[in-house]
Amino acid sequence: MTASVTVRVPAKVNVQLAVGGLRPDGFHDLANVFLAVGLYDEITVAPADELRVTCTGPDAGQVPLDRTNLAARAALALAERHGRDSRVHLHIDKDIPVAGGMAGGSADGAGALLACDALWGTGASREELLEICAELGSDVPFSLVGGAALGRGRGELLTALEVGGTFHWVFAVADGGLSTPAVYAECDRLREASGTGAGIADIPDPEASAALLDALRTGDAAALAAAVSNDLQAAAVSLRPSLSATLAAGTEAGALAAMVSGSGPTTAFLVTDETEATKVADALRASGTCRAVRVTSGPAAGATVLRG
Ligand code: C5P
């Protein structure tokens, strides 16, 4: 039997996050355009005396190590379906910001699932793995597939998208995280307060922007910048007003687009090339409006077995 398996999984940014009304099941229908970017967590799994999770990396102290961790839940779900022994050690080498709107927890779920699948040789189909991912969380299927995709439903029903080039990004990591349910609830509250209502009868069905999909297909960063949107941005800024200063600092430094990444509080800055990325990153560091700055690009490949 293989002694251990290591899987690498990317972070994501949502270049469009269109949020429909609140559904009776507590979720929102989305038109969610995901782009995987080159910040990665690595998940290593090996047989052990009991199921346990460890984590290293700059934000490791903020990662839950109990069975609420999506990596542990992924191992348990796959073990249950295939009658395997779930006593494994899952180690997460974490480089994706925690609770930042970059799907770090989802990445660990998808990574642990693929790693356990390889360790146990379950022979599960891609469809079955995607089904388990969807049970674990709305963003987990995308962490498995990577690249770029449109997510419908609550974000779990994926259609792969063509991307015609490399997009360069700078990410500003804020102090502390934001809870995804709290940001969705704030979005509903702001909609109620503005008088539109927040239910599925009040909000039009979310649709992917044709201009945005075109910009992805042609690899045109300026066109993508003109088309990006995030319906959760106002809610994230409402809960964390200091994000306005971070967004302004990146815009002043010449970013083509400045936006909150997913439910935040990480902010994302689209730039023309690596030189501009360095310039915007330096300006964000100097602004004192964020805890850390990361430079990367996308699309990046989905969950990939590195070793084992
Ligand atoms: O699917 P996931 O566990 O990541 O969702 C976390 C929470 O985010 C949900 O309980 C819900 O409050 C909110 N959410 C939502 N609509 C979605 C996805 C998530 O309201 N499409």
UniProtKB/TrEMBL annotation:
Residues covered by the GHMP kinase C-terminal domain: 213-288
Catalytic activity: 4-CDP-2-C-methyl-D-erythritol + ATP = 4-CDP-2-C-methyl-D-erythritol 2-phosphate + ADP + H(+)
GO MF annotation, one: 4-(cytidine 5'-diphospho)-2-C-methyl-D-erythritol kinase activity
Protein's organism: Streptomyces syringium
Ranges for domain GHMP kinase N-terminal: 69-147
Lineage: Bacteria, Bacillati, Actinomycetota, Actinomycetes, Kitasatosporales
Name of protein: 4-diphosphocytidyl-2-C-methyl-D-erythritol kinase
Keyword terms: ATP-binding, Isoprene biosynthesis, Kinase, Nucleotide-binding, Transferase
Function comment: Catalyzes the phosphorylation of the position 2 hydroxy group of 4-diphosphocytidyl-2C-methyl-D-erythritol.
UniProt family annotation: Belongs to the GHMP kinase family. IspE subfamily.
Gene3D superfamilies: 3.30.230.10, GHMP kinase, C-terminal domain
Residues annotated for ATP binding in this entry: 97-107
Active site per database record: 12, 139
Keyword ATP-binding among record annotations: yes
Pfam families tied to this protein: GHMP_kinases_C, GHMP_kinases_N
Record-linked PANTHER family: 4-DIPHOSPHOCYTIDYL-2-C-METHYL-D-ERYTHRITOL KINASE, CHLOROPLASTIC
Gene of this entry: ispE
Pathway linked to the protein: Isoprenoid biosynthesis; isopentenyl diphosphate biosynthesis via DXP pathway; isopentenyl diphosphate from 1-deoxy-D-xylulose 5-phosphate: step 3/6
EC number: 2.7.1.148
